[in-house]
Amino acid sequence: MGVSIEHYFVLSAILFVIGVYGVMARKNLIIVLMSLELMLNAANLAFVAFSRVHDDMTGQVFMIMSITVAAAEVAVGLALVVAVYSHRESLNIDILKILKG
Amino acid sequence: METIVFYVFAALSVAGALLVITHRNPVSSALSLVLTLFSTAVLFVLLLAHFVAAIQILVYAGAIMVLFLFTVMFLNLSPEALKFDSKNMAFKGSLLLAVLVFVGYFASLGFRRVFSEKDLSSSVSEGFGTVEGVGKVLFTDYLLPFELTSVLIVAAIIGVVAIAKRRES
Questions:
Q1: From B86's CA, which of A6, A29, A35, A73 has a CA 20 to 30 Å away?
Q2: Neighbouring C-alpha atoms within 13 Å toward the C-beta of B30
């Protein structure tokens, strides 16, 4: 009795839900970005598990694409965090209300 | 042996994820995120995806975490600046748990139907997960998406420079 594919999916789902909870409940901008990373990481785990089961490396290629997107997103997001912090001296996500038209 | 390694590193990754969202200090959260990413890389090795595991350590745990830590230390946050987190975290958490149980039940029903015959004990083809194998797929079937990611990176770099430059004036 080894580890089956469902184990990896359950772990991926748990990590994803923890990330969703971080995005919903936390108000610190930087920690919200980290929770986004958690969600992307959970999706990557599911991609690689699917790739292993189907003996097809497409899942791993998509995982590399997803890492690229994550890197670009974090760069832009952290630049926005620095801009917002220098403007308002706070990291509370509620100050993003100033972006309302 | 494999089962033990899976359970140890799965528990470590979940613990790291929980620490990420519960810590008040962003530096501690970033270091816990490194724990999660490293444990996930070990799980990638268990799934025979060695190249992807190396990428995970180098790019995620190396580059992205350095970016996070650099920003946190650049901002030089005072402890008072972080005392604003929401109060009803337990309520939101229980709501989310209910949704998870509801969705997970139906998802497990679906997975049982899809994966009834396929499992991790099945063998894989030659060169699965190596640099050569992944590179072959990446540069033949997915060459155009691969080139488009470079466009995405350039767009991100230009965007960051634009945001940082406007702040100066």
A1: A73
A2: 21
Using CB atoms and an 8 Å cut-off, which of residues 53-82 of chain A contact chain B?
A: 53-55, 57-58, 60-61, 63-65, 67-76, 78-82
Is A2 an interface residue toward B (CB < 8 Å)? yes
DSSP designation for B24: S
Alpha-carbon gap, residue A51 to A49, rounded angstroms:
5
ipTM reported for the complex, 2 dp? 0.90
Instruction: Output DSSP code: residue B117.
Output: S
pTM of the model: 0.87
SS (H, E, C) chain A: CCCCHHHHHHHHHHHHHHHHHHHHHCCEHHHHHHHHHHHHHHHHHHHHHHHHHHCCCHHHHHHHHHHHHHHHHHHHHHHHHHHHHHHHCCCEHHHHHHHCC
B77 part of contact set with chain A, CB < 8 Å: yes
Shortest Cα–Cα distance, B130 to chain A (Å): 10
List pLDDT tens digits, range A3-44.
778 888 888 988 988 898 888 888 888 999 999 999 999 999
- Choose the closest CB to B30 out of A34, A72, A76: A34
Instruction: Provide the Cα torsion B31, A20, A53, B122; round to 10°.
Output: 60
Q: What tens digit of pLDDT does each residue of A37-83 get?
A: 999 999 999 999 988 888 888 999 999 999 999 999 999 999 988 88
